[in-house]
Every structure is written in C-alpha cells, then in structure tokens.
Design a protein that fits this description.
This protein has 226 residues and is α/β, with parallel strands linked by helices. It has 8 helices and 6 strands.
C-alpha cells in the first residue's frame, strides 16, 4: 500500500494538466498585492487532516490566493475561514483558524480534500481536467480510506464525484442538507460551498453550514465523546 507521504509527493509533483499548472504558476508569480511579500506554494495541493478520519469533507479545487498560496487545502481565504470555524465548532478541529501550514491546526477524525488538486482559472476546471484528477488521485483517496463513514460534499461537483465513486444508482438531487445512503452503510451529506458567492448573498449561513456538521456527528455517534 502506498504511504501517505508518497501519495502527497505524487500530488505535489503532478503536471498532467498544462492549463492548470500554467495558471497556478502565473498566480504565484504575479501574486495579490496583500500577499506580495509571501512566497506562493504554486503546486497541486494534497489532502489535509487525520489519516484515520471517519469524516471526509470534499470541495471543488484549491483557491488561487488561498491554498495555491499557502499549500494547505482551504487555507488562507474566506471559504477556508468558514470551513475550519465549522469544523472547530463541531469538535473536529483544535482551532477555528487556518492561515498557514505551520499554524498548529490539527483535525481529529476529519480530513479535507478537493476533487481537483490545482487552482483553476475562474474556479472552473474543464471536464477533462476533472476526469484526469479523479482518475489519478480522487478515486484512490476514496479507496484508501475505507474507515470513512460520512462524506460532506461542498457543492454539486463534489456531490456528483463522490456518488460516481460509489457507483450508486439511487439518485438524490443535490441541495443543501440533502442526504444519500452509500454502499457499505456510508452516508453522503450535501452543503452549499462556502464561497463568497454563497456566503455574502446569504444563500449559505453559518447555522445552515453548522447543521451539516452536526448531522455528521450524529451519524458518527460522536455526540458524547467529541
């Protein structure tokens, strides 16, 4: 079985999608003014969290000035602020903030990943780029963590990608709070993505977001011991 360190190294070294690699490197070169003194990561971003996680949170792709800058998924942007606050409130994280790979954040029983490992232009990976990343990495992530019992999909693409991994024919329409039973007694939960497009407009509120993580706790029977 491939080690976690070897898998991460394989992700970091991937050059399979030229358009994505060009974009990540260009963003890392030009930077955002607020981060102009920082050195951007500029590479594909690996999963983060507890290797023995029972909860897997899945997003679309790294943020251009978030994970593509910091090197840790959902770290350094507003989406990550929302996610790690929610994980902390639900007892899956030791702190509510995620600013860098050396900030002391640790997850317990939870792991965070994305379907696509590189930041895409306009947050829109192509269909081929999605398929490439799923074939090279995402399907192996799912297969290598059989202990995961609950999946939280942040957005429709993550929802569809997880469903396809389990080859389930029972179709539940994606909407916030939707729930689908997967083979093996596992459960897939749906949440709107905590992007500014959703959080600034009120389409996603923090109580709505928290409710999904509370449901994950219920399914994992962690109400008393987390």
């Amino acid at each position: 079985m491939q080690s976690a360190a070897s898998f991460e190294h394989e992700i970091h070294a991937c050059t399979a999608c030229p358009r994505l690699r060009k974009h990540c490197l260009e963003v890392a070169r030009t930077k955002r003014r607020a981060y102009e003194v920082q050195t951007y990561w500029g590479k594909p971003v690996a999963p983060f969290g507890d290797p023995q996680a029972r909860l897997l949170v899945v997003g679309l792709a790294p943020g251009a000035h978030g994970a593509n800058r910091t090197g840790r998924i959902f770290t350094g942007d507003r989406s990550g602020d929302w996610l790690y606050r929610a994980l902390h409130r639900a007892g899956f994280a030791n702190q509510a903030t995620s600013t860098s790979r050396t900030d002391g954040l640790a997850l317990s029983r939870a792991r965070v990943t994305c379907v696509v490992k590189c930041a895409p232009p306009d947050n829109k990976p192509s269909r081929q780029e999605i398929h490439t990343c799923i074939d090279r990495f995402f399907d192996r992530e799912i297969a290598s963590h059989p202990e995961v019992q609950v999946y939280i999909a942040l957005g429709r693409l993550a929802w569809d990608s997880i469903r396809k991994q389990f080859k389930t024919n029972h179709r539940v329409t994606f909407k916030h709070g939707a729930e689908q039973t997967l083979p093996g007694g596992k459960t897939l939960l749906a949440s709107y993505h905590p992007s500014q497009q959703n959080t600034f407009t009120g389409r996603l509120t923090e109580p709505m977001f928290d409710s999904v993580f509370e449901r994950a706790r219920e399914l994992l029977n962690l109400l008393k011991d987390i």
